[in-house]
Amino acid sequence: MGPVQPPQRKGRMPQYSKNNLVELQNKFDELECKGVFRKPEDVGISVEYINPSFLVKKASGGFRLVTAFADVGRYSKPQPSLMPDVDSTLRTIAQWKYIIKSDLTSAFYQIPLAKDSMKYCGVATPYRGVRVYTRCAMGMPGSETALEELMCRIVGDFLQKGCVAKLADDLFCGGNTPEELLYNWECVLQSLQKSGICLSPSKTVICPKSITILGWIWSQGSISASTHRVATLASCPVPDTVRGLRSFIGAYKMLSRVIPNCSNLIAPLEEKISGMKSADKIIWSDMLREHFEFAQKSLSSRKAITLPKCSDQLWIVTDGSVTKRGIGATLYINRDGKVSLAGFFSAKLRKHQVLWLPCEIEALSIAASVKHFSPFIIQSKLQANVLTDSKPCVQGFEKLCRGEFSASPRVTSFLSVVSRYQVSVNHLSGRANIPSDFASRNAPVCTEPNCQVCCFISRTEDSVVRAVSIQDVLNDEFRLPFTTRSAWINIQSECPDLRRTHAHLKQGTRPSKKLTNIKDVKRYLNVASIAKDGLLVVRRCDPLAPPNELIIVPRNVLDGLVTALHIKLDHPSKHQLNLVLKRHFYALDMPKAAEQASDSCHTCARL
């Protein structure tokens, strides 16, 4: 639990008929016999919170008892753990030629619940009073991380060998020969038996030719898009709202790894809804409708891709286009003397990047592509090769290997990503670079604010040591320096006034009116609030503009911050400096500090 306790609530029953209430009670009794539920007095606790429970129909028939822990979850601390994701699981599974898929039986019920947590996990039965959970349950805060930790302890050695993959309560075991698969499966079963973990016989599939895993069709070492997923997109009607079209585009992007030229197909649709609200209606022109229907028809051209093994030779063919404002790459693998397609990548550049030199665009394309395919590069036993049609990038990388610097600082900074992964860069004729060339010239416009590809491109650009002008910051073309939130949290914690302000806001209190020596604290409390990450901010809402959080700057660092920004932004005027400060920071008497920094600047005085 976090610092705030959940409020006490009385128990409620779902509006069921008599028969369904009896069925609900039978489920409680069944689980109580198995030790999942206990009476509170039997475990020596007093229940402080009652969670609602109800029945859910199973696909195979019968009912399942479900408890909603939504309200308790809001007051719980997140349990830190490294959770597996779909991409890493697919990378492991796609390398096997033979596979076994299984499912844990009542996985969460096999994890004991801490006694301190039981009082928040109470339930009300229809006829036999209050019970408490003594074991974990699906949806319980922290249950997923507890199951992840349990499975890591049991099958961690097999995960390290690469013969087992897991995702939630799904378990996959694989091998490249039937004998290897049998040996791996026996070892896994022995490990599960020692720990008392059970598998579901009805959900265990052994050595299928093809099987649907995580929405993808696995077939002897390759993956392709599921027919059901493709059929849904291919047959759906034209969406009426922006929300519906965004949903279509998001589902379409999930198939980008197996659909050639995916970025080109959805780019017109993304451009149409750029800057629009989710509830806005879409006016479909004939041209836009043709793009939508063509994207649906292109789903039939999906291809199966072969994900790399650690023993495969990787070839990344990159290209960047200044005129089309895009970068792209194609990943190939060489396995047993045969070249196979392993994936696509493309991204759109920002407007100001069009003014860059072509070699700088190519270098950014190389860095972004290597970063995108880095999970495969890290696992490969062989050195990966990057092929580009840019001679200056090849020569710049050779200079970097000799300890020299390129004439362009951007090229040097971008290519440093390549050296981090020990990748070689070679020249490829533009005539032989058709797939990546097309991808770079037809990259989509991405409107997702948290897109990892776009964030990496932005961070890579920002890593270049270059001059930043005040106009660039005012036009939001560059991020203002000194705005790292984690650093400001530490700085604010060192200020007594802000520490006291934070405590008052967190506890919902205010200082006594009789105290006259804390004027700054009272001024902060009039405008300050606590952000989600714990930073003290001032929320500003300007007309026709999205809300903005201004970082509160303590008095003792204000002068240093203003002076540093004044020098960093190449000595702007007082008015320009105030505009920048008011857009990102809040401080008491900030205009005076800006005026003092400008007046005391010797460079500005000489001008």
UniProtKB/TrEMBL annotation:
InterPro entries: DNA/RNA_pol_sf, Rev_trsase/Diguanyl_cyclase, RT_dom, RT_RNaseH_2, Viral_Replic_Matur_Polypro
Coiled coil: none
Protein name: Reverse transcriptase domain-containing protein
Ranges for domain Reverse transcriptase: 37-218
Pfam families in the cross-refs: RT_RNaseH_2, RVT_1
SUPFAM superfamilies in UniProt: DNA/RNA polymerases
Superkingdom of this protein's organism: Eukaryota
Transmembrane segments: none
